[in-house]
From TrEMBL:
It is an enzyme of class 1 (oxidoreductase). Residues 18-300 form the Prephenate/arogenate dehydrogenase domain. Belongs to the prephenate/arogenate dehydrogenase family. This is Prephenate dehydrogenase.
């Protein structure tokens, strides 16, 4: 019998030498374990919840740590933000020869708390992989969760080279792209690209609660795009936002100012200058989107061709096969279903210079495009 995919080990050698101990068997901790186990790294697990611990072990993220196990080379703390500092301090005391890193999404608050307590941070290196999913837990973990995703390393001038190298080795083993920031830079950055979008998405989705079923039935891709992350765990986000409140508050205040300006212009839309104010604010959004890195981190932009496909087995596969036969490289793909109809929409991102040919050639093969 073949082993489950999560337990099939890679022939690629790991950069990590020694045992990796993971504290916290949720999505990130279990995904780190799965990725390292694919490289035959010895991974031990620890979690306050026996059920979470057993699930992570069953899925192949590592084995439950035993009292007789030797001290690990590195400890990865993957606990909720409100106990990160406590756990880091405990791990540094329990395994004084090990390097300790944490993967919490806020870096400054835990670091300042550890400094306040007078903890020796020589062997501590804060880090944060910019990866995740809307739903957590070991059951949602993936070995490739960090592939090609940024992994921020926060070091200070006293960090030993060997400690830094070990944390970097874990990130590189998991296929991540290393970035170096100070804790302050990190928290300001994630406040903008992660924490503010979460708040905006959640508050927007909350507006749907009193809506009628008829109104909800009109929902399309725009609403789904802007509310996708609103299904994230509220308890976890209360911790994250509370720990990073100062950057997030500043961003929310700036956002609120723009909303107020937009509302005032819309309220007086027939007065001179109001339409220009609306256009300027909307255009600033276009410029902002233009700054988001495209495929492979480049600034390259794509156009979208929407193909109507019958909602039956094999149709999507046939479309993708024919795109390959036509020599059209699909840069991205999104699927949307039509409520109440047995049809779907495949939104295919392609290079602008092949868009016209793609529409013509697909039509010649019987595909309908929008």
């Amino acid at each position: 019998m073949n082993e489950p995919a999560s337990r099939v080990h890679s022939t690629v050698r790991s950069r990590v030498h020694g045992t990796v101990h993971i504290v916290g068997a949720g999505l990130l901790g279990s995904s780190i374990g799965l990725g390292l186990r694919e490289r035959d790294v010895d991974v031990t697990l620890e979690d306050l919840s026996p059920t979470s611990l057993a699930l992570a072990a069953d899925y192949g993220a590592g084995r439950v740590r035993a009292a007789e196990d030797p001290h690990p080379a590195i400890v990865v703390v993957a606990t909720p933000p409100d106990v990160t500092a406590d756990t880091v301090e405990r791990m540094l005391a329990t395994y004084p020869s090990a390097v300790v890193t944490d993967v919490a999404s806020v870096k400054l608050a835990p670091y300042l708390e550890l400094v306040r307590r007078g903890v020796d941070l020589t062997n501590y290196v804060g880090s944060h992989p910019m990866a995740g999913r809307e739903r957590g837990g070991a059951i949602m973990a993936r070995a490739d969760l960090f592939t090609a995703r940024p992994w921020v390393i926060c070091r200070d001038g006293e960090t030993p080279a060997e400690a830094l190298a070990l944390v970097e080795a874990v990130a590189l083993d998991l296929g991540a792209v290393l970035l170096e920031m100070t804790p302050e830079e990190h928290d300001r950055s994630v406040g903008l690209v992660s924490h503010l979008p979460q708040v905006v998405s959640s508050l927007l989705a909350a507006q749907l609660i009193p809506a009628t079923e008829q109104a909800i039935g009109l929902a399309g891709g725009g609403l789904r795009d802007t509310t996708r992350i609103a299904s994230s765990d509220p308890e976890l986000w209360v911790q994250i936002l509370g720990a990073n409140r100062e950057p997030v508050i500043a961003l929310l205040e700036s956002f609120a100012t723009d909303i107020e300006r937009f509302t005032e212009a819309l309220r007086a839309v027939d007065e001179p200058g109001s339409k220009r104010k609306l256009a300027d604010l909307l255009s600033s959004g276009m410029r902002g989107v233009g700054r988001i890195p495209g495929k492979h981190g480049t600034s390259e932009r794509f156009v979208t061709v929407t193909v109507l496909i019958d909602d039956k087995p094999g149709e999507l596969g046939r479309l993708l096969t024919e795109l390959g036969e036509l020599g059209i490289n699909m840069e991205d793909l999104r699927l949307e279903h039509s409520p109440g109809a047995q049809i779907g929409f495949a939104e295919i991102a392609i290079l602008p210079e092949v868009a016209d040919r793609a529409v013509t050639d697909l039509a010649a093969r019987g595909w309908r495009t929008l």
